[in-house]
Specification:
The complex is a heterodimer of chains A (413) and B (228). Helix content of chain A is 56%, strand content 19%. Chain A has 413 residues and is α+β, with helices and mostly antiparallel strands. Chain A has 2 domains: 204 residues, no CATH class; 179 residues, no CATH class. In chain A, strand 6 and strand 7 form a beta hairpin. In chain A, helix 2 runs antiparallel to helix 10. The longest helix of chain A is centred in the first third of the chain and has 39 residues. The radius of gyration of chain A is 32 Å and the shape is elongated. Helices cover 35% and strands 27% of the residues of chain B. Classes of the chains: A alpha+beta (413), B alpha/beta (228). Bound molecules: adenosine-5'-triphosphate (ATP) and magnesium ion.
Chain lengths: 413, 228
């Protein structure tokens, strides 16, 4: 029997909304549209941030980087890692590590016949990098190779443009060795890459690590870049490594320390999503508040009669809440389905912004932005809408509560 | 013990304020089961106020109302809502019905609140709808009925749940004389067939003449109380 009544009020709520369908649809749509906007903003923005972070991590430092403690403050390659074997065996045993590579990084000067400028030289092992940074995927022209005699160079596309060099052209790279003596080498451009990692695209040059070792008289590496299976384990693995590394000159950094701005933008993302949820909360509250208030005020007499013939006030409250929830939840559902489908589409096919490609790559982003979809986008906005609905009914219900049934009935009709 | 006892009921609106008005100045009245009573009197004499207090829709400043042994003036709001549901049927001047429910659903509404089964509701709705000559409109919405038809549906709802007492405040005021007379005739018939006590108020001499007992209010006091 109780169920039966519940159903009756639900039906009454539904019928009333249908009677006032123009208004109901308007508010529903308003909520749906703001939800769609919110979902797209959240998903696209987070997707963008994720790409940015992944780009920087993959082609740059890695999730963790192992270096000499003094190198950050004084970027002189005399602060390098000599015991690379020891570290390699530690890393091999770390279960959360997915891959690691040795690199030598040194600042230098790159020159062609007519032009020279600063360059960040990275000595890498292309075979190892293929599994790690996957530079091969970023090549725009040329081959993923340093040539037969390992005398090749892979350079960033912006650097290539600036130097006006192309595949097969010769460049001279000059730098200091571990003893601060100036050394130089002639390299042939074997490939040009576009990683969307600004440091590499504008200033980067990759060359064979062994060639760079003999050039700089450095036997180990200046850094070990480590990728983890899960980026969020960074601090866990960092701690574990720090415990196992006995050499007190060696430090382990997380990408969060290396790129504080990346980390900040992740934190910002959370704030952003909270603000957007607050926004949709306000839209829903105001929208539904107006509708509920009007709908209650125009039915004061109807409610009065319902109460006179024995309906309890809490059942009237139930009716009002049902009506409000029906409007907002249908809006939510519509918005979640449309917004969710759009996000799903953009998460697979991406949103192509190649028209603005240059502007984006300056920030280290791909021109094709893939959205992320997270369950929490839906749950947090659902809760917002739900609370908004309840909040919006409070004042109308109190307005009604203040009148006794007879005052309501005597309300002029 | 009388069926309905009204004892020294006083009602003052906006007490203590400048707009204070005394609607009832001490009304004493006893009413027996199955009576058919009209309350008349000039506008502002306190008819509606008295009916509202009897029905537990409004509170009295002084005095008591006892219906079938229950002192309703002592009940709290929630208890009153339940008491009204079980014991009193109401018919107001106009717009009595819930607009989104059909005629049938309106008639059975109180029965459903009381917990009657769907079969019981169906049977009872058919019974009263036939009696009130509205069985042809059961599936219509109130908006699609004439004023007279709507008032008959309101009476059907009031009587369907078998209350002890039906209170009707100017039920015919919005009807033309033909429909007004028809409604009165039907209410009279219900009074006999259903053995339900009915108290209604009216301005209309034609309507007043239909009642067996006529009470006239004037300035918040009983001016005349006679049985024909
Ligand atoms: N809610 C109220 N607030 C203030 N005064 C009221 C209120 N309701 C009724 N009154 C006053 O109480 C007195 C009795 O009113 P009531 O409505 O009972 O008269 P009535 O006999 O039903 O009149 P009518 O024939 O016009 O319906 C009137 O003076 C009226 O102004
Ligand atoms: Mg009146």
């Amino acid at each position: 029997m109780f169920k039966n009544l519940e159903l009756l009020y639900f039906k009454m709520a539904l019928l009333h909304l249908f009677r006032r369908r123009g208004r109901s649809i308007l508010i529903s749509l308003m909520i749906a549209i703001s939800l769609i906007g919110l979902l797209l903003m959240e998903g696209m923005y987070e997707g963008m941030m994720l790409q940015l972070t992944q780009n920087s991590i993959k082609t740059g430092s890695g999730t963790l980087v192992i270096e000499d403690k003094k190198l950050r403050a004084d970027p002189n390659i005399k602060y390098n890692i000599k015991e690379t074997q020891t570290l390699a065996s530690i890393l091999d045993k770390e279960p959360l590590v997915s891959s690691y590579v040795l690199r030598i990084s040194q600042k230098g000067l790159i020159s062609t016949a007519g032009f020279s400028q600063g360059v960040s030289v990275s000595g890498v092992d292309l075979k190892e990098e293929a599994k790690h940074s996957e530079f091969q995927n970023y090549i725009t022209s040329g081959e993923y190779s340093f040539g037969a005699r390992e005398r090749g160079a892979i350079i960033g596309y912006r650097l290539a443009k600036k130097l006006k060099v192309d595949i097969g052209k010769k460049v001279i790279v000059t730098m200091q060795d571990v003893n601060n003596e100036v050394v130089s080498v002639a390299l042939k451009v074997s490939a040009i890459i576009k990683t969307n990692n600004i440091a590499i695209d504008a200033n980067g040059l990759l060359m064979d690590i062994n060639l760079l070792r003999s050039l700089t008289m450095l036997h180990g590496a200046t850094e070990i870049s480590v990728l983890l299976k899960n980026r969020d384990d960074d601090l866990l693995v960092k701690q574990s490594l720090e415990q196992k590394i006995t050499d007190s000159n060696i430090a382990v950094y997380s990408y969060k320390e290396l790129y504080p701005s990346l980390h900040e933008s992740e934190a910002f993302m959370q704030t952003f999503s909270q603000i957007s949820s607050a926004f949709i909360f306000i839209v829903a509250t105001l929208g539904i508040f107006g509708v509920v208030l009007v709908s209650v005020l125009e039915r004061v007499r109807e409610f009065g009669i319902m109460m006179a013939i024995g309906t309890q006030f809490r059942d009237i409250v139930r009716l009002i809440i049902y009506e409000s929830l029906l409007i907002t939840m249908s809006g939510y559902l519509l918005g979640a389905v449309i917004g969710g489908s759009l996000l799903w589409y953009f998460s697979i096919y991406g949103l192509d912004l190649s028209g603005f490609s240059d502007a984006f790559s300056i920030f280290g982003m791909d021109s094709n932005i893939k959205a992320t979809i997270k369950q929490e986008y839906f749950t947090s906005s659902f809760l917002s809408v739900l609370f908004a609905t309840i909040a919006a009914t409070i004042i109308p219900i109190r307005t009604l509560k203040k009148r006794n049934p007879i005052e309501s009935i005597q309300e002029r009709v | 013990m009388n069926f309905l006892n009204i004892n020294g009921v006083k009602k003052i609106f906006n007490e203590g304020k400048e707009s204070e008005s005394i609607a009832l100045k001490g009304v004493d009245l006893t009413i027996e089961k199955e009576e058919f009573i009209v309350i008349s009197g000039p506008s502002g004499s306190g008819k509606s106020t008295l009916l509202n207090i009897i029905g537990g829709l409004d509170s009295a400043n002084e005095g008591s109302v006892t219906l079938d042994g229950v002192e309703i003036t002592a009940l709290n709001e929630n208890a009153l809502a339940l008491f009204r549901r079980e014991n009193i049927g109401f018919v107001f001047q106009a717009y009595n019905l819930i607009p989104v429910l059909t005629v049938k659903e309106n008639i059975e509404y109180v029965m459903r609140l009381m917990g009657y089964s769907q079969q019981e509701c169906d049977a009872r709705v058919m019974e009263v709808a036939k009696e009130l000559d509205i069985d042809a409109y059961l599936d219509k919405l109130p908006d699609h009925l004439s004023g007279g038809q709507q008032q008959r549906v309101a009476v059907a709802r009031a009587v369907a749940s078998k209350p002890k007492l039906i209170l009707a405040d100017e039920p015919t005021a919005n009807l033309d004389s033909k429909n007004g007379e028809k409604l009165m005739a039907l209410m009279q018939k219900l009074n006999k067939d259903e053995k339900v006590t009915i108290i209604f108020s009216s301005h209309d001499p034609m309507v007043i003449a239909k009642a067996r007992r006529s009470i006239v209010l004037k300035d918040g006091l009983i001016f005349e109380d006679k049985v024909r």
